[in-house]
Amino acid sequence: MAQETQIQIGNAAEPRPAHIRRLSRLNLLVAGLAILSFIEALAMVRLGTLHGNDFKHLWAGAWLLQHGLDPYDARLLFKIAHQADWARSTLTCICRPPGC
């Protein structure tokens, strides 16, 4: 009878080196974070919370300063936003605590 020959590539019982295991975990972590970031960006686009004007807060605060007004006054900041037709977009007012 013919003898069966088995070709074995590598040893299944042999563990992978530690640097290979760490690299595999790092790749999985990076891939997972990339997928989560994509899902979050997609959700922001679908919900309409993504906007393209990141400088509006700085511009409004500088405009208030230039006109001698308080850039930390939320009422004035939102008034400027409404006049500039930013009412539909998101506007964040950062107010300082009293006494600062």
How are the SSEs ordered, and which strands pair?
Blueprint: H1 18-47, H2 56-66, H3 74-83
Helix pairs in contact: 2-3
Describe this entry's structure for a reader.
- About 5% of the residues are buried.
- By secondary structure, the chain is mostly helical.
- The chain folds into 2 domains: about 15-50; about 50-100, no CATH class.
- It is built from 3 helices and no strands.
- It has helices at about 20-45, 55-65, 75-85.
- The longest helix is centred in the N-terminal third of the chain and has 30 residues, at about 20-45.
- The chain is elongated, with a radius of gyration of 29 Å.
- It is about 50% helix and about 0% strand.
- Helix 2 (about 55-65) packs across helix 3 (about 75-85).
Name the features.
100 residues, 51% helix, 2 domains, mainly alpha, elongated
Largest sheet: none
Derived structural class: mainly alpha
Strand content: under 5%
Helix content: 40-55%
Mean pLDDT: 75
Spans of 5+ residues with little confidence (pLDDT < 50)?
A: none
Shape: elongated
Q: How widely separated are the two ends?
A: 94 Å
**Domain tally:** 2
Question: What kind of oligomer do you see?
Answer: single chain
> In angstroms, what is the radius of gyration?
29 Å
Alpha plus pi helix count: 3
- What is the succession of H and E elements? HHH
Number of strands: 0
